[in-house]
């Protein structure tokens, strides 16, 4: 019991520290981190805020079937507030589709991705990363109508590398992106968290090179974040591409390599 209490105290202190740091970053460098979507999400209140928290609680506590209904209500509430083509409304529809898949309704998820695809292309443009997100998941879940996907545990965040050690050796902007990703995740903007991790990955590749172990572990984190954001097809592709690089750089017995192989096999073998 004592160990459990200490663990939750550490988690709580970490959340407080992250909140303090992100507030400082936003104050000093708002142009570098915040977008209009971030501000709207932070200021969201009333029915939409309540629905968002309820949907997140249900989805992340292993009740995706209950979360499906709540996400549907959240889509309606946000559409009334911001309009059908607002990026966060479209991201909420992506979250609803991903939650349908988590609930075992692969056919319903495929239909939901098909329905949101033309709206994404019209509102955001064909080159926006959400468009291939919807397209590949539509095809992915069409052949997995009754499969419930595996849910990656959150402990894989940044892999087995202790973040404090990594961040001490990186530019300040890297830590800001990592905290922004966590902030978006905690706010329920899973797709936005994927965006922040992609920015962090690009910066780490630029500074360290594509074969650095920290870059590989960031790719592992990004793959898991994609999976939990509902992008099952993107996660499957990411784990597939990452595994060979993990073996080459870290070796087959490394914890990150073994975790990547396990996730790759789970997502690849879903149709069975």
Automatic annotation (TrEMBL):
Lineage from the top down? Bacteria, Bacillati, Actinomycetota, Actinomycetes, Kitasatosporales
The domain of life is Bacteria
- Signal sequence range: none
The UniProt entry, under InterPro entries, shows:
NLR-like (IPR053137), TPR-like_helical_dom_sf (IPR011990)
Protein name, per record: Tetratricopeptide repeat protein
Q: State the Pfam families in the record.
A: TPR_10
Q: Which SUPFAM superfamilies match?
A: TPR-like
Originating organism: Streptomyces castrisilvae
């Amino acid at each position: 019991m004592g160990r459990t209490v200490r663990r939750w105290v550490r988690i709580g202190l970490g959340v407080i520290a992250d909140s303090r740091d992100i507030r400082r970053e936003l104050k000093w460098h708002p142009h570098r981190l915040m977008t209009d979507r971030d501000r709207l999400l932070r200021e969201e209140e009333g029915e939409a805020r309540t629905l968002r928290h309820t949907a997140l609680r249900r989805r992340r506590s292993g009740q995706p079937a209950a979360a499906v209904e709540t996400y549907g209500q959240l889509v309606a509430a946000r559409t009334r507030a911001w309009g059908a083509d607002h990026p966060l409304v479209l991201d909420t529809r992506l979250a609803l589709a991903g939650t349908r898949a988590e609930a075992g309704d692969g056919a319903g998820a495929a239909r939901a991705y098909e329905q949101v695809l033309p709206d994404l292309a019209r509102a955001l443009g064909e080159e926006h990363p959400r468009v291939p997100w919807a397209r590949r998941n539509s095809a992915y879940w069409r052949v997995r109508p009754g499969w419930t996907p595996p849910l990656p545990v959150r402990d894989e965040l940044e892999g087995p590398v202790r973040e404090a050690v990594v961040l001490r050796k990186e530019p300040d902007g890297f830590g800001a992106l990592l905290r922004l990703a966590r902030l978006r995740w905690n706010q329920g903007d899973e797709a936005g968290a994927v965006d922040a991790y992609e920015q962090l990955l690009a910066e780490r590749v630029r500074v360290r090179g594509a074969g650095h172990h920290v870059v590989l572990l960031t790719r592992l984190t990004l793959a898991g974040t994609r999976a939990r954001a509902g992008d099952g097809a993107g996660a499957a592709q990411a784990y597939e591409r990452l595994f060979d690089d993990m073996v080459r750089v870290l070796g087959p017995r490394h914890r990150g390599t073994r975790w990547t192989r396990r996730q790759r096999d789970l997502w690849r073998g879903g149709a069975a």
